[in-house]
Amino acid sequence: MDLPSLSHFTPALLWLDIAGIAVFAISGALAAARLQQNLVTFAFFALITSTGGGTVRDLLLGVPVFWMHEPRVMAVGLGMAVLVWCTPARWWRGKALDWFDALGLAAYAVFGAAKALGHGIPALSAMVMGVVTACVGGILRDVLAGQPSILLRPEIYVTAAALAASLFVGLRQLGVPPLAASALAALAGFGLRALAIARGLSLPLYRG
């Protein structure tokens, strides 16, 4: 979240970035909690999950990596790790990791697409940047935790990120204000992912 370079974004999109960082950091810390790790691992998982997608996005865009110049990113990530560490395990049982990950997925898909558009990236590429921003952190988290990557599971995940990113880009192309476009797109992406979590929705597999 390099504020000077993002001055053309609305406060709503900047808050969406902070929200994505926070909930992805929680999901990373929850992955460490499932493995019953120490606080250092909690912090590492939280930071990798919350910054992984944005780091790849910024490198591809050729712009300064956001967390290198904005200390609030690290503060939010570390704060969420400490929060999970200090709270009772019963608060985070069940599908808590999936739900926080779904929130981060929707927020980051929209913000990633918005940042790409703000740097003059064409619409289709901006959609891809939204998906990269939303998905890479979760993939890194799963790899570090020794879990099957979300890419190798049939449930709807990347599709939800693609929906949020493409809907945001499409609405902006139609002239919809950023606040409305980001809200509608994030809700759509979260809604699709929520249905996948609650009802086990998945894409058809290749049968050969």
Q: What does this 3D model show about the protein?
A:
With 208 residues, the protein is mainly alpha-helical. It has one domain (4-199). It contains 8 helices and no strands. The radius of gyration is 16 Å and the shape is globular. Mean pLDDT is 88; it is low at 1-8.
Q: Which features would summarize this protein structure in a list?
A:
mainly alpha, 0% strand, 8 helices, globular, 208 residues
Structure described in brief:
By secondary structure, this protein is an all-alpha fold. It is built from eight helices and no strands. It is globular and about 45 Å long.
Distance between the termini: 44 Å
Helix share of residues? Answer: over 70%
- Low-confidence parts, pLDDT < 50 over ≥5 residues? 1-8
Number of strands: 0
Major β-sheet annotation: none
**What percentage of amino acids are in beta strands?**
under 5%
Q: Mean pLDDT, nearest integer?
A: 88
Order of helices and strands: HHHHHHHH
Q: What's the shape?
A: globular
**Annotation field: number of helices:** 8
What would you report as the Rg, rounded to the nearest angstrom? 16 Å
- Helix/strand class: mainly alpha
- Number of structural domains: 1
Could you outline the blueprint of secondary structure elements for this entry?
Blueprint: H1 11-34, H2 39-61, H3 66-69, H4 71-86, H5 96-118, H6 123-144, H7 158-173, H8 178-199
Helix pairs in contact: 1-2, 1-4, 1-5, 1-6, 2-4, 2-5, 2-6, 5-6, 5-7, 5-8, 6-7, 7-8
